[in-house]
TrEMBL record:
It comes from Mesorhizobium tamadayense. PROSITE patterns: 4FE4S_FER_1 (PS00198), 4FE4S_FER_2 (PS51379). Pfam families: Fer4_10. This is 4Fe-4S dicluster domain-containing protein. Its cofactor is [4Fe-4S] cluster. Keywords: 4Fe-4S, Electron transport, Iron, Iron-sulfur, Metal-binding, Transport.
Amino acid sequence: MPFKIIASQCTQCGACEFECPSVAIEFKGETYVIDPDKCTECKEAFDTQQCVSVCPVPKTCVPA
């Protein structure tokens, strides 16, 4: 299941965009969004989702 970013909690820090190994995160409108077609949940690359690990706001990057 791909991840999504809770827009109301996103601080627009951009940390997740640069850590995403599948280049699935981009800034659109006023927040960052995860393209569900590109999100691999970091499987086979990392033990944990990189967006979750770098986000400064808990529970902002969550399963869709």
